[in-house]
Write a structure and sequence with these properties.
This protein is about 45% helix and about 15% strand. The chain is α/β, with parallel strands linked by helices and about 280 residues long. The protein has two domains: about 30-115, Leucine Dehydrogenase, chain A, domain 1 (Rossmann fold); about 140-260, NAD(P)-binding Rossmann-like Domain (Rossmann fold, 3-Layer(aba) Sandwich). The radius of gyration is 19 Å and the shape is globular. The structure holds guanine. Guanine binds next to strand 4 and helix 6.
């Protein structure tokens, strides 16, 4: 069994982004800028946003976090997004999800300028991904594709089972795999007999937030496991959706949690933001 080491690859990518950022600054006098919208006091969202901000600092980006109270109005968030759309120092806009119940999330995601949509959540970028055109791709599934590539894992013709059908992870994951010529199945909360599907998988991608969902008797020998789950167990330890101790005995490759997919998500946010800055620089010439 080999570990798919996302922490190590993320560090390598960060180092190259830091170098490219220094070069970009030398050539343009500018640095990539990221604006983050953080609404309410969800502790996990605060942790994620903090990690994103620190990563921006490490590679030399400008970043600003707009912290807003949970009872803020839809209009006030919209005004901030419009301001960020118009701000030439901002290349990327990220709305940390989930948002409070009274907020229309779809409307906000659609308000972000598609050229600043570094999360790849705007329907314009979702559409481009669907038809296989270049655009902004959601960071977590994009990070998974880079991680597989680093270990020379080609998904072409492989039976890939994606467990979870969210807009952030499962759906874009399935589209990226399909675009890379994999055979793709998407399983979700209404799937009857999950095991029947996972037993047939060469590669399993799971991100549903259920600790220990994937057990050893649900996978075939030499399966490749990509665990996108983030859960806290009874001891307060961070764990994924896969029973690592059991499943790692049967797997040929497996991502750990933490240290697998998580660090890749942040590396891809930096990569998308640099790409946005380079695009904006070209467009302004
Ligand atoms: N909430 C959970 N994951 C993500 C993510 O990748 N981006 C944003 N904006 N919010 C999230």
């Amino acid at each position: 069994m080999k570990i798919l080491d996302g922490k190590k690859l993320a560090l390598k990518i960060e180092n190259s982004i830091a170098q490219e950022t220094a070069l970009f600054k030398k050539q343009t006098g500018k640095v990539p800028g990221l604006a983050v919208m953080l609404v309410g006091n969800d502790p996990a969202s605060h942790t994620y946003v903090n990690m994103k901000k620190k990563a921006c600092d490490r590679v030399g980006f400008y970043s600003i976090t707009h912290e807003m109270p949970s009872d803020i109005s839809q209009e006030a968030i919209e005004e901030t997004i419009i301001m960020m759309n118009q701000n030439p120092n901002i290349d990327g806009i990220l709305i940390q999800l989930p948002l409070p119940e009274h907020i229309d999330t779809t409307k906000l995601l659609e308000l972000v300028a598609p050229g600043k949509d570094v999360d790849g959540f705007h329907p314009y970028n979702v559409g481009r991904l669907t038809v296989g055109l270049d655009g902004f791709v959601p960071c977590t599934p994009l990070g998974v594709m880079h991680l597989l590539q680093e270990y020379n894992i080609d998904v072409k013709g492989k039976n890939c089972v994606v467990v979870g059908a969210s807009n952030i992870v499962g759906k874009p994951m399935a589209l990226l795999l399909l675009n890379a010529n994999a055979t793709v199945e998407i399983c979700h909360i209404f799937t009857d007999d999950l095991k029947k599907h996972t037993l047939n998988a060469d590669i399993i991608f799971v991100g549903v937030g259920v600790e220990g969902l994937i057990k050893a008797d649900m996978v075939k020998k030499d399966v490749i496991i990509v665990d996108i789950g983030v859960n806290k167990n009874a001891n307060g330890k961070l764990v994924g959706d896969v029973n690592f101790n059991e499943v790692s005995q049967k797997a040929s490759f497996i991502t750990p949690v933490p240290g697998g997919v998580g660090p890749m998500t942040i590396a891809m946010l930096l990569s998308n933001s640099l790409k946005a800055a380079q695009m904006h620089n070209k467009a302004s010439k």
